[in-house]
Design a protein that fits this description.
about 250 residues; alpha/beta; 11-stranded mixed beta sheet; 8 helices; binds zinc ion
């Protein structure tokens, strides 16, 4: 039996700011503060890149685009450094509605590789790996107007975001559908994929999703190592808790 009480540290792995994402409502600093108040030990800022709903003018030269894109992360990090919240850099990249969460790249690496801009999904995965990062398929089964079709890339990703709190939290007002998480769990099991969870929050109303760990994370590299290891961590949408394989450990109590 997994003892839930041992997993004391919570990390939000899917979060947007209004500096990087057009659909974001709050600054990085506001998001970091809200996360800290909601009990998180850390967050990854995963703003939408140019293939998604970026807040930054796509006509800018690549480097300048990245410089502006990372402002949400930098803002969150400055707040986190002062107030004891671990803030990590991430990216949510998009390809005609299919989205990927990228962890453990540095902003410097991202800025130094303009090939990212025109990369296909396969090429992008290669670039991420060359920079030491990992790619998790975000909410692979979400059905929404901006996603023309469900496309899976089992040979090209490192893992899958199985629990997305926007689909299932009682606080979420969009993209609701518990089945999107259930299908993602099935997909991950079929391919033996590492998994992750996040809230996909766009405002300071924190859904409470993310992963729960026994030991505090030290940074992005540690997060990557954990996801690729066989050590246990838990997944949550804020209402329910699952083990990393998607087994429900605690159900929602209203
Ligand atoms: Zn968004
Ligand atoms: Zn997102």
């Amino acid at each position: 039996m997994t003892d839930i009480s041992k997993f004391k540290y919570k990390y939000e792995l899917h979060l947007h700011t209004n500096q990087g994402s057009k659909c974001g409502h709050n600054t990085g600093a506001e998001m970091a503060k809200a996360a800290k108040e909601a009990g998180y030990s850390g967050i990854v800022v995963t703003d939408h890149a140019w293939g998604g709903n970026t807040a930054v003018d796509r006509s800018l030269p690549y480097e300048e685009w990245v410089r502006q894109y990372i402002k949400g992360y930098e803002d969150a990090k400055a707040w986190g450094d002062e107030n004891g919240l671990l803030v990590m850099f991430g990216i949510e990249s998009g390809f005609q509605g299919t989205e990927f969460l990228i962890y453990n790249l540095t902003p410097e690496y991202f800025m130094s590789r303009p090939e990212f801009w025109n990369a296909t999904i396969k090429e992008q995965l290669k670039l991420v790996h060359e920079g030491g990062g990992i790619v998790m398929h975000a909410h692979p089964y979400r059905e929404e107007f901006y996603i023309p079709e469900i496309r899976l890339f089992p040979d090209d990703v490192d893992g899958v975001e199985t629990i997305n709190a926007t689909h299932s939290s009682h606080l979420s007002k969009s993209h609701l559908g518990m089945q999107y998480n259930e299908l993602a769990i099935e997909y991950a099991r079929k391919h033996n994929f590492p998994t992750c969870a996040g809230s996909d929050v766009h405002s300071t109303i924190m859904f409470g999703g993310g992963i729960l760990t026994e030991e505090p994370l030290t940074g992005s590299q540690d997060l990557k190592d954990l996801i690729l290891s066989d050590r246990m961590y838990l997944l949550t949408d804020g209402d329910r808790i699952y083990d990393r394989y998607g087994l429900l450990l605690r159900d929602y109590e209203a």
